[in-house]
Design a protein that fits this description.
The complex is a heterodimer. Chain A has strands at residues 4-5, 10-14, 19-25, 32-38, 45-51, 56-59, 62-67, 72-77, 86-93, 99-101, 105-110. Chain A is an all-beta fold. In chain A, the strands form 2 sheets. In chain A, strands 2, 4, 5, 9, 10 and 11 form a 6-stranded mixed β-sheet that branches. In chain A, strands 1-3-8-7-6 form a 5-stranded antiparallel β-sheet, with no helix packed on it. In chain A, strand 4 (32-38) and strand 5 (45-51) form a beta hairpin. Chain A is globular, with a radius of gyration of 13 Å. In chain A, 35% of the residues are buried. By secondary structure, chain B is mainly β. Chain B has strands at residues 4-7, 10-13, 18-25, 31-37, 44-50, 53-57, 64-70, 73-79, 87-94, 104-105, 109-113. The chains are: A mainly beta, B mainly beta. The A-B interface holds A 2, 4, 32, 34, 36, 41-46, 49, 89, 91, 93, 95-104 and B 4, 6, 31, 33, 40-43, 45, 48, 50, 55-56, 58, 90, 92, 97, 101-108.
Chain lengths: 111, 114
């Protein structure tokens, strides 16, 4: 049973517009959520995170929203740039060393 | 070198071979991880070491054997692998609990078992 799900395998967005990537989870014990970006032939790189005590965290063009009642988080990228084209993974942890990752969403930003 | 490095980047091995993957982190972290990424599957946590002690072992077959001689180095020893073990193997590091949760990943080793 997959505890962290990214139901959209791919997303295409026009440059300058907003990209919204979604992630759902089932385990209410998760207390920290992270987003990673992965380019081909590279390992994932940390992008932004959010604690379960917050509902929003912002870092420049990237904002993560957490809806605990819906067990849903989303990553907003505004404005989207061609260099943002990558695979985005969400991950969750209960505060142990165990991280559960989603399967990823491939974002393509069209120039 | 900076960040997390992994060698080799690509490895092809037969089912009877023995090989090792190496990971080194230059970030001063004290927890290190091995993940497996197969096609169209999420990253699967294999092993975690904190302060050189194994703290997580995710029911991984014994043909995978980790070793953490110090907080900067992590190895994954491979023997008698199966074709389904072909995958991208990623190493990551982080600070201990309570300080930060972000993990920093290496570029991975693409393993092909023939």
């Amino acid at each position: 049973d997959q505890q962290v799900k990214q139901n959209s395998p791919s997303l295409s967005v026009q440059e300058g517009r907003i990209s919204i990537l979604n992630c759902d989870y089932t385990n209410s014990m998760f207390d920290y959520f992270l987003w990673y970006k992965k380019y081909p032939a590279e390992g994932p790189t940390f992008l932004i995170s959010i604690s379960s005590i917050k509902d929003k965290n912002e870092d420049g063009r990237f904002t993560v929203f957490l809806n605990k009642s819906a067990k849903h988080l989303s990553l907003h990228i505004v404005p989207s740039q061609p260099g943002d084209s990558a695979v985005y993974f969400c991950a969750a942890t209960t505060g142990t060393y165990k991280y559960i990752f989603g399967t990823g969403t491939r974002l393509k930003v069209l120039a | 070198e900076t960040g997390v490095t992994q060698t080799p980047r690509h490895l092809v091995m037969g089912m009877t071979n023995k090989k090792s993957l190496k990971c080194e982190q230059h970030l001063g972290h004290n927890a290190m991880y091995w993940y497996k990424q197969s096609a169209k599957k999420p990253l699967e946590l294999m092993f975690v070491y904190s302060l050189e002690e194994r703290v997580e072992n995710n029911s991984v077959p014994s043909r995978f054997s980790p070793e953490c001689p110090n907080s900067s180095h992590l190895f994954l020893h491979l023997h008698t692998l199966q074709p389904e073990d072909s995958a991208l193997y990623l190493c990551a590091s982080s600070q201990s609990r309570g300080l930060a949760y972000e993990q920093y990943f290496g570029p991975g080793t693409r393993l092909t078992v023939t």
